[in-house]
Amino acid sequence: MDLKLTGKNAIITGGSRGVGRAIALGLAAEGVNVVVTARSQSAELMAVVEEARALGVKAFPLDASMENADDVLVMMKEADALLGDLDILINNAGIWLTGWIEDISLEDWEQTMDVNLTAPFLTSQYFAKINLAKKRPGRIININSQAAFNGSTTGHAHYAASKAGMVALTISMARELSSKGITVNGIALGVVNTDMIRGNIEANPGYYESRIPIGRVAQPEDVANIVVFMASEPASYLTGTTIDATGGMLMR
Predict the structure, then answer these.
(1) pLDDT averages per 10-residue partition of the chain, 252 residues
(2) Catalytic residue numbers?
């Protein structure tokens, strides 16, 4: 299947490791030029950029503090300037702070909302404005979680609330933008073998697998394969949906 992605331009937030890294490299393998962002210009970020360049595409690193609205907007302007046009926006950056509801500080609550919900709103708004002004189509893909639908039982109510907000934002943006050529979709993840949760997986062997009908924890590349398709021309009839990519944990 020809995904018709060669020569497209994408920005991937939180792309220095884990799922974001896999998505950036998956898109690059299909000929997509990428801007990869992270909190800082780390060795990990530069490694992803170099791997993408080795695949024959243009690739650039950008750093931004996603809880800072000004940083987010500067990042989007720089990405637009580097690539010329933006065809694909992957809102992947997120944080997963821990705290039971009676213990969550206002600071932690606000930081979670800023990074997980306000930043994707700001990036999407900028992306929509520039593409509407140019009368260009586009793809927005929001990396979400099964917690958006199931809530949290492990001390992450603020995370779950931010992700539930992203579902509603995805639908609302799709209703407004799809008729103008910009599709908006999400993908709900379950347990993925990344730095964020690897310690928990190793500390409880077999526990997470027992909760997943497919019987294994996802690898970042499993997610990336789905996202690359969602960004492609053959997926152009998808909009306003959050795809279940949990190995059967969600089944909605």
Answers:
(1) 96 97 98 97 96 98 96 98 97 96 98 98 98 98 97 94 98 98 98 85 84 94 98 98 96 88
(2) 159
* Contact status, residue 122 vs residue 174, Cβ threshold 8 Å: no
Contacts of 8 (CB under 8 A, 6+ apart): 27, 31, 32, 33, 87, 88, 231
**Which phi and psi (to 5°) does residue 156 adopt?**
-135, 45
Gyration radius of the chain over CA positions = 17
- From the centroid of its chain, how far is CA 182? 17
| 20 CB-near residues (< 8 Å, 6+ apart) | 12, 13, 14, 36, 90, 92, 93, 143
For 201, other C-beta atoms within 10 Å of its C-beta total 17
> Could you tell me the domains of the chain?
9-245 (3.40.50.720)
The tokens describing 58, both together, are 């243009």
The pTM assigned to this predicted structure is 0.96
* 244, 15 contact by CB (below 8 A): no
Residues in contact with 243: Cβ distance below 8 Å, sequence separation at least 6, in sequence order: 185, 186, 187, 188, 226, 230
